[in-house]
């Protein structure tokens, strides 16, 4: 649609200015969607449906058109589920045509089909499904289009559809009811925020008070979906109260139908988010909690499970309201963990894991804030429950399943219990140790593998949280035992957990941050030998051994030029390469683990081992080369192949970054640059997104290492760069590519000029697209700065477009209203905008074209003042913002003197930054002060 | 509504290595971006501070060559040379113009000459900074103007196939370009292959210069990738034989005096007493100042700065007082403080008490050339005065090396000037 708009506005902007024809064509195309920029930016900044209105997508609804006969629909829907592929395809094609020819009639017919009790259940279900898909989609931009489309439909038709949907809720056919309840929720999700369909909730509630049970069940289900679909602020408290009353009544023991109770319990799960006010009211909260707790004792396992799900949700949403109930909840959960069926027991354990999550967050906030103020106080539920909670969890550890380590999707009570134990350790720290040690000691040498494994897992779980002083004596005793178990224990399960535990030991208790080292010259050799040995074990054990080696290596990172691992370096690298070549390296993600560890080995290498890293370059290159040789592969093989290519590109990236960071190694490394680049270019011919991302990252590192010489690769590389920038689907690839444009700008400087037209066009397009993930947009702005700094006044050509995009985004990002995530995003957007301004000002400095920037100065100063007044910028933005003030003063000098003096930024903001504790902010502020004093003195 | 999945990561690191690679890349890119911005800003701020303290001026046209030895004392010594290699346009000229280390004139013999000093025969020619980076080499004269733009065998000095010309590698050499044999004689090394030698002692710099320059192939005969030959100048310990070798030894270039380097001194931009120049007729064609027409004026001329209280001072920091100017002249000629004034030294000459200037017989000639930025330095005035009246001779230098306790003796050597 961008293209269409571009063409239609082409004639209007023929007189745009003196620019080259080719570029002008681009500009004219751009002009069309630059105009839409504000609206698009809105769409990713704010609630899509509320702020945008129907400007973009509104259409008059074509009521005219061919009427679809009801009979015809049924047949087509049946055909669409035919086992005969040709029939199916034909039917799908007809449905598509109906939809395109007359959407309104199409949707009305579908709703009629769904509501018609005489129709076969399959066609009713499918009709409902198509309706649902006409209202919602996964992709944000698509979803947005569908919402606008529905809102602009003829209102009579919509009433007709909605009536059919509500009618279906009372159908005797359960599949029809269930489908209808989902569609109702989707329509509500669109309409309620627009104050449409006000009678919906009222009519649903009146259903609840009517028999028969099946209608009641469907209605409660609908309320559940509805609460999932709409945000709490669009439903007023009066209606919330009614919904909750109906739901909780439906859950209570007085309700005779199990199906109704189940539907009500599940509905409550979604409605909990609406119950803020009700949870603040003691009586109402007591009532809700009582009904939920009763439901955990229901004879129906599905209801018990759903009730525990509610408790889990309550534990995070209403943590601060739980104190009066926590004792009862402990009893309920303990009983469930001991006796109930696994799905219920898992939820009971999850309740405590979730409480741990809450308390860890709160305590972390305490730690970071010296005043001790926190929005939510910590009630130390876990600490209080500790003496009972820990034994309960330890007991679960002995309920392992055979082969759970080989099954990727496994999740059982032992795993959940162990995970929870780890969270408890992080929550309470030292207190857990004496409660777990007897269990470890009592089980670690038992003949039953379950006991040895459980003991080892318990040990591994408590290694994060308690203080090193408490743990190191234990570890010193255990280490030798563990190393021996890893080689000698007959159970693969025990070896797996032992290797994992060793990894945890190295992760948390080994490294320059720990005072008393647990690894000495004496046992280092043994540790390495055992780990390398274990890398020959079964894939799951070998994978954990790689992980342990990863943390062992990482712990030596800050050790200075001479690492204790130097003598083993060659052997470690060789072993990892051998592992990566194992026949079964595809299992238990062993190959991935081997390369990840190899990467860490490279990252932590020292000057001493740099020559060995250099030797690795041709080896990895050869591996990558081999994957590119053109054999015919099945799709499964190809998938494996591209996974391997991703790993190899990642490894090369790490190597390039490492070797490029020091002059002598870079010098030697550069002999491989041409060949490596050749390989990367061939990788781009493969299709996988992951591989592209990895190769792109590696090329960024290569550009940085190569500097201006990278220009020689540009003619060939450019088209892949452009492809990367156009990859909206896999936005990570796009984001990484934007970063690489920055790398290349810095490396090439003015030599990037020949590619700038293409790059800038694409970047501006990306900014205006509502299909591109919003996280990519801030880096695009930063990238403008990189380019401007690299090409200097040559940026003039793009100035108007870049500035207009920046200005729109700046206006939107000044005021934020939203949650933490939105504040964080807005700050990253501000930072991108500010980095762009910095780059542009510095790029134009000392050029005769500086005066071109003067018209933009008032707005930029206003932007700086604006974000200063908002008082919600983070340190990064603060530093960048005050730097921009300096850059503006520096480049415009006396032209901006009086403007700057009038700005708040030049006074209060600058003073605040000058007295900042943050050195980076202070440094930027000093710079701004100097530049301003010069600008206003002339 | 299906039950909600509650699986948590089991025996897994919280962050994938791929995410780590991504994060580290972003970190590197952010760091590089910050560096580029910082570079642009630091450069600008150094120029700002220079502009505010030292007004810009063109090199004085009519002045004789050695007069431009003067430099602003307010030099930004701490400016990272790494940035310098990336500058371009007018900044680069301004920057380089202020980066050269400038010797004072030797008006007395330093203590411990034989222990703490090197001596070398200075080649006659154009003093310049030679910078190799990004595959090209540029030589810039003291006023910042480009002398040559050429490929060289210096690291990063030419676009060769081995890819050595990376962005981070560069060299900065302090050279004198000798016209007749088209050779750059390297008298000091400031940066080599990306490593700054600014904060290294002269001893280390000369050692590095002698080992690295040869190794790089820069001393080879010119070729396609190496347009000019470089050559190290022989540096001697300033003992008797070293001094004698520098003074009278045969070198392939025309000499212009001797340079003395204190072995412990770092490379410092601007005037420094830790590098000294000395010359006599034997080792230099230009001993006595000439005027704009290349002739030696009958009386020595000096340029001094007029201060608020009618004081006439040199460009040194702190300034040295020569005398006070008659109020009449100031009124008649409409002079203001800050003016640079030209004087001849009359028959009364300069008189010293305890090694300090006591009185000067100055005859006012008029305002100095408009383009002139600074007054003369004290050491220059005195050296020129001594050359005309009682020069410091090579024998005096040799004698000071011989004397076991030279501490007391040297000052009396020059105090006899009357």
From TrEMBL, chain A:
Keywords: Cytoplasm, Protein transport, Repeat, Transport
Main location per the UniProt record: cytoplasm
Domain Importin N-terminal intervals: 91-171
Keyword Repeat: yes
Subcellular location field: Cytoplasm
InterPro entries assigned: ARM-like (IPR011989), ARM-type_fold (IPR016024), IMB1_TNPO1-like_TPR (IPR058584), Importin-beta_N (IPR001494), Importin_beta (IPR040122)
Protein name as catalogued: Importin N-terminal domain-containing protein
Organism: Hibiscus sabdariffa
Classification of source organism: Eukaryota, Viridiplantae, Streptophyta, Embryophyta, Tracheophyta
Automatic annotation (TrEMBL), chain B:
Cited Pfam families: SPN1_m3Gcap_bd
Domain Snurportin-1 m3G cap-binding: 99-276
Compositional bias ranges of the Acidic residues kind: 57-66
Localization of this protein: Cytoplasm; Nucleus
Keywords: Cytoplasm, Nucleus, RNA-binding, Transport
Region annotation (Disordered) ranges: 1-23, 49-77
Basic and acidic residues composition bias: residue spans: 67-77
Presence of keyword Acetylation: no
Similarity comment: family membership: Belongs to the snurportin family.
Name of the featured protein: Snurportin-1
Organism whose genome encodes this protein: Hibiscus sabdariffa
């Amino acid at each position: 649609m961008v293209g269409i708009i571009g063409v239609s506005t082409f004639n209007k902007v023929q007189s745009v200015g003196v620019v080259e024809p080719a570029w002008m064509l681009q500009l004219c195309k751009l002009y069309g969607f630059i105009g839409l920029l504000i609206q698009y930016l809105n769409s990713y900044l704010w609630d899509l449906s509320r702020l945008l209105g129907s400007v973009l997508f509104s259409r008059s609804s074509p009521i005219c058109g061919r009427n679809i006969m009801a009979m015809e629909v049924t047949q087509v829907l049946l055909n669409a589920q035919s086992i005969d592929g040709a029939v199916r395809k034909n039917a799908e094609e007809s449905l598509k045509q109906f939809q395109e020819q007359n959407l309104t009639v199409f949707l009305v017919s579908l709703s009629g089909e769904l509501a018609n009790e005489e129709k076969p259940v399959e066609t009713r279900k499918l009709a409902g499904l198509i309706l649902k898909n006409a209202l919602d989609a996964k992709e944000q931009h698509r979803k947005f289009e569908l919402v606008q489309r529905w809102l602009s439909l003829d209102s009579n038709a919509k009433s007709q559809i909605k009536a059919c949907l509500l009618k279906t809720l009372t159908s005797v056919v359960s599949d029809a009811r269930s489908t209808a309840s989902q569609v109702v929720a989707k329509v509500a999700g669109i309409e309620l925020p627009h104050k449409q369909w006000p009678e919906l909730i009222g009519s649903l509630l009146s259903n609840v008070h009517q028999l028969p049970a099946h209608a009641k069940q469907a209605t409660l289900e609908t309320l559940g979906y509805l609460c999932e679909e709409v945000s709490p602020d669009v439903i007023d408290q009066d209606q919330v109260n009614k919904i909750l009353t109906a739901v909780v009544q439906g859950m209570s023991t007085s309700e005779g139908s199990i199906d109704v109770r189940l539907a009500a319990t599940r509905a409550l799960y979604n409605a909990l988010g609406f119950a803020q006010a009700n949870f603040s009211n003691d009586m109402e909260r007591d009532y809700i909690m009582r009904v939920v707790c009763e439901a955990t004792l229901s004879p129906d396992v599905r209801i018990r499970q759903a009730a525990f799900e509610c408790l889990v949700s309550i534990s995070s949403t209403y943590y601060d309201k739980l104190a009066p109930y926590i004792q009862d909840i402990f009893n309920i959960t303990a009983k469930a963990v001991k006796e109930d069926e696994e799905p219920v027991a898992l939820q009971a354990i999850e309740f405590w894991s979730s409480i741990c999550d809450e308390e860890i967050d709160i305590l972390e906030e305490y730690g970071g804030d010296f005043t001790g103020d926190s929005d939510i106080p910590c009630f130390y539920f876990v600490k209080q429950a500790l003496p009972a909670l820990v034994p309960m969890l330890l007991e679960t550890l002995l309920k392992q399943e055979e082969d759970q380590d080989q099954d990727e999707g496994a999740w059982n009570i032992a795993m959940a219990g162990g995970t929870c134990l780890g969270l408890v350790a992080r929550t309470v720290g030292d207190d857990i140790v004496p409660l777990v040690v007897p269990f470890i000691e009592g089980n670690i040498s038992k003949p039953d593998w379950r006991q040895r494994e459980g003991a080892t897992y318990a040990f591994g779980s408590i290694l994060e949280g308690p203080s090193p002083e408490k743990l190191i004596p234990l570890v010193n005793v255990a280490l030798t035992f563990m190393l021996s178990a890893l080689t000698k224990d007959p159970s693969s399960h025990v070896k797996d957990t032992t290797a994992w535990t060793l990894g945890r030991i190295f992760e948390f208790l080994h490294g320059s941050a720990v005072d008393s080292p647990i690894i000495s010259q004496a046992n280092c050799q043994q540790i390495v030998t055992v780990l390398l040995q274990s890398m020959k074990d079964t894939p799951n054990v070998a994978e954990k051994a790689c992980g342990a080696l990863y943390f062992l290596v990482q712990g030596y990172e800050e050790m200075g030029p001479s690492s204790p691992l130097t003598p083993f370096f060659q052997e470690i690298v060789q072993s990892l390469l051998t592992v990566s070549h194992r026949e079964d390296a595809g299992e238990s993600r062993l190959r991935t683990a081997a390369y990840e560890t190899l990467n860490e080995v490279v990252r932590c290498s020292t000057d001493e081992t740099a020559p060995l890293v250099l030797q690795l370059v041709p080896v990895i290159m050869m591996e990558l080369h081999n994957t590119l040789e053109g054999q015919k592969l099945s799709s499964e093989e190809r998938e494996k192949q591209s996974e391997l290519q991703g790993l190899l590109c990642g490894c090369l990236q790490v190597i390039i970054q490492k070797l490029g960071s020091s002059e002598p190694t870079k010098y030697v490394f550069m002999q491989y640059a041409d060949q490596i680049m050749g390989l990367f270019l061939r990788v781009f011919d493969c299709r996988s997104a992951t591989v592209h991302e990895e190769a792109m990252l590696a090329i960024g590192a290569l550009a940085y290492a190569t500097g201006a010489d990278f220009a020689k690769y540009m003619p060939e590389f450019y088209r892949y760069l452009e492809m990367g920038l156009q990859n909206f689907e896999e936005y990570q690839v796009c984001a990484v590519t934007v970063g690489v444009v920055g790398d290349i700008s810095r490396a090439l400087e003015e030599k990037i000029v020949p590619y700038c037209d293409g790059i800038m066009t694409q970047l501006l397009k990306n900014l205006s697209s509502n299909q591109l993930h919003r996280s990519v947009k801030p880096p695009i702005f930063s990238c403008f700065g990189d380019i401007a700094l690299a090409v200097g006044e040559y940026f003039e050509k793009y100035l108007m477009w870049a500035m207009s995009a920046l200005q729109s985004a700046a206006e939107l990002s000044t005021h934020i209203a939203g949650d933490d995530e939105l504040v964080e995003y807005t700050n990253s957007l501000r930072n991108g905008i500010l980095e762009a301004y910095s780059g542009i000002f510095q790029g134009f400095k000392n050029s005769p074209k500086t005066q071109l920037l003067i018209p933009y100065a008032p707005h930029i100063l206003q932007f700086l003042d604006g974000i200063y007044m908002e008082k919600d910028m983070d340190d990064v933005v603060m530093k960048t913002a005050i730097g921009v003030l300096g850059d503006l003063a520096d480049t415009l000098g006396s032209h901006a003197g009086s403007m700057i003096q009038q700005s708040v930024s030049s006074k209060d903001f600058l003073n605040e930054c000058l007295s900042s504790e943050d050195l980076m902010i202070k440094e930027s502020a000093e710079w701004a002060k100097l530049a301003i004093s010069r600008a206003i003195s002339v | 509504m299906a039950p909600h999945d509650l699986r948590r990561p089991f025996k897994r690191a919280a962050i994938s290595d791929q995410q780590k690679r991504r994060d580290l890349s972003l970190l590197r890119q952010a760091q590089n971006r910050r560096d580029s911005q910082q570079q642009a800003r630091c450069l600008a701020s150094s120029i700002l501070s220079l502009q505010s303290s030292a007004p810009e001026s063109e090199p004085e046209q009519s002045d004789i060559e050695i007069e431009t030895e003067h430099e602003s004392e307010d030099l930004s010594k701490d400016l990272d040379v790494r940035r310098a290699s990336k500058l371009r346009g007018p900044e680069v000229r301004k920057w380089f113009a202020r980066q050269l280390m400038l010797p004072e004139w030797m008006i007395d013999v330093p203590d411990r000459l034989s222990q703490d000093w090197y001596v070398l025969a200075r080649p006659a020619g154009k003093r310049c900074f030679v910078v190799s980076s990004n595959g090209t080499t540029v030589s810039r004269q003291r006023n910042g103007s480009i002398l040559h733009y050429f490929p060289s065998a210096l690291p990063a000095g030419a676009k060769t196939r081995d890819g050595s010309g990376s962005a981070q590698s560069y060299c900065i050499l302090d050279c004198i370009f000798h016209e007749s044999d088209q050779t750059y004689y390297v008298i000091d090394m400031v940066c080599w292959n990306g490593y700054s030698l600014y904060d290294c002692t002269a001893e280390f710099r000369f050692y590095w210069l002698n080992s690295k320059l040869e190794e790089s192939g820069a001393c080879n005969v010119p070729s396609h990738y190496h347009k000019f030959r470089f050559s190290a100048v022989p540096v001697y310990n300033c003992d008797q034989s070293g001094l004698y070798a520098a003074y009278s030894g045969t070198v392939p270039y025309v000499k212009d005096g001797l340079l003395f380097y204190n072995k412990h001194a770092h490379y410092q931009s601007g005037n420094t007493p830790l590098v000294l120049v000395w010359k006599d007729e034997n080792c230099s064609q230009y001993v006595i100042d000439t005027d704009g027409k290349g002739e030696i004026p009958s009386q020595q001329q000096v340029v001094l700065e007029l201060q608020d209280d009618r004081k006439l001072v040199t460009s040194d920091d702190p300034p040295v007082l020569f005398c006070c100017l008659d109020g009449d002249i100031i009124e008649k000629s409409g002079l203001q403080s800050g003016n640079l004034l030209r004087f001849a030294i009359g028959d009364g000459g300069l008189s010293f008490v305890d090694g300090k200037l006591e009185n000067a017989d100055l005859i006012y000639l008029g305002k100095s050339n408009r383009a002139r930025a600074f007054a003369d330095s004290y050491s220059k005035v005195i050296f020129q005065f001594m050359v005309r009246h009682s020069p410091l001779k090579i024998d005096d230098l040799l004698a000071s090396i011989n004397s076991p306790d030279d501490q007391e003796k040297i000052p009396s050597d020059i105090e006899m000037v009357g």
